[in-house]
């Protein structure tokens, strides 16, 4: 980390802390996720690094490198100065349909690229959707801790964030991670337009079991107070389908009449964002794996524990009992 200077803390979570740093020679800003050495460097961390480092797309936070310090594993990546999409909605209450479409088109563009690269994200949500600092904000998907490469096998672990999780992910059986990602994108679209989660009971929003029951029965509605076009309602009805085999796919979303309205040229078929570029980090796969193994060794100096928060999880069987 000698070539970087720390500017400030920019976030925290189950992983540890994220800091804004500046490259001393280029003066370029980066975000660095610091994870305590030792047991926290688990398979999720390794999967995050190995999957994320292979991706290169305008709507995905760019991976730069991974480093090890005496106390932490440090993941260096592009800095998204605009913060979380979640925060933007929190300030606005909800978006107009046109604004929601602007962000949703970019989200789908990034997710489509991930799927073409045979990676499903499995924790798509507003908090993992960042924005750059430009006047017309560009969506940047981040946090690949629950992502899975589909080159080996289909996923079957129940992971994700409850409000966004697809019904089939709760089944404890193998499922199509790409189709499960579609459901999470639908939740994101609904929240942007309505300003609330589709499957939470408005009278009891913190009741996790009720949320799960409503997901499994696909029980949602659009408030009368929110004007939503027929085309948008149709798209949501095609996303929120319990049977994943009957749910709309990402390629189908990209041709849906609501989605293609005002679609930027670069996102159209054959446009500059339709490429299958592979990221080529300066570090080799072997070097990265060696750094990860080194970071799994215990801390070299004592550290002070810090209070962290986070909401993504692997969901235990007990959590879905009674549904």
From TrEMBL:
Q: What Pfam families does the annotation carry?
A: Pkinase
Write the record's keywords in alphabetical order, separated by commas: ATP-binding, Kinase, Nucleotide-binding, Serine/threonine-protein kinase, Transferase
Q: Which GO terms describe its biological process?
A: abscisic acid-activated signaling pathway; response to salt stress; response to water deprivation
Q: Which residues bind ATP?
A: 33
* Enzyme class (EC, first level): transferase
Show where the Protein kinase domain sits: 4-259
Q: Which InterPro entries match?
A: Kinase-like_dom_sf, Prot_kinase_dom, Protein_kinase_ATP_BS, Ser/Thr_kinase_AS
Q: Which GO terms describe its molecular function?
A: ATP binding; protein serine/threonine kinase activity
Q: Look up the EC number in the record and give it.
A: 2.7.11.1
Q: Which reaction does it catalyse?
A: L-threonyl-[protein] + ATP = O-phospho-L-threonyl-[protein] + ADP + H(+); L-seryl-[protein] + ATP = O-phospho-L-seryl-[protein] + ADP + H(+)
Family statement: Belongs to the protein kinase superfamily.
* The protein's name in its UniProt record: non-specific serine/threonine protein kinase
């Amino acid at each position: 980390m000698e070539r970087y200077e720390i500017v400030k803390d920019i976030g925290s979570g189950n992983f540890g802390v994220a800091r804004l740093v500046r490259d001393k020679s280029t003066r370029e800003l980066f975000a660095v996720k610091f994870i305590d050495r030792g047991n926290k460097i688990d398979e999720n961390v390794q999967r995050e690094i190995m999957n994320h480092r292979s991706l290169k797309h305008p709507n995905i936070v760019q991976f730069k490198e991974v480093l090890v310090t005496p106390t932490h594993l440090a993941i260096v990546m592009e800095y998204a100065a605009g913060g979380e999409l979640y925060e933007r909605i929190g300030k606005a209450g909800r978006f107009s349909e046109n604004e929601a479409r602007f962000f949703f088109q970019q989200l789908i563009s990034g997710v489509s690229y991930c799927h073409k690269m045979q990676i499903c994200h499995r924790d798509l949500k507003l908090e993992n959707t960042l924005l750059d600092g430009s006047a017309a904000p560009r969506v940047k998907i981040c946090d690949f801790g629950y992502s899975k490469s589909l080159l080996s096998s289909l996923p079957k672990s129940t992971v994700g964030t409850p409000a966004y999780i697809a019904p089939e992910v709760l089944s404890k059986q193998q499922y199509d991670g790409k189709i499960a990602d579609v459901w999470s994108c639908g939740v994101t679209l609904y929240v942007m337009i309505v300003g609330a989660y589709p499957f939470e009971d408005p009278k009891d929003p913190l009741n996790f079991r009720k949320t799960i029951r409503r997901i499994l029965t696909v029980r949602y509605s659009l408030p009368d107070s929110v004007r939503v076009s027929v085309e948008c309602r149709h798209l949501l009805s095609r996303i929120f389908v319990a049977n994943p085999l009957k749910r709309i796919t990402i390629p189908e979303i990209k041709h849906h009449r609501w989605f293609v309205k005002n679609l930027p040229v670069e996102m159209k078929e054959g446009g500059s964002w339709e490429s299958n570029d592979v990221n080529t980090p300066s570090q080799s796969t072997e070097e990265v794996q060696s750094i990860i193994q080194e970071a799994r060794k215990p801390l070299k100096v004592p550290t002070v524990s810090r209070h962290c928060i986070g909401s993504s999880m692997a969901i235990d069987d007990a959590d879905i009992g009674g549904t």
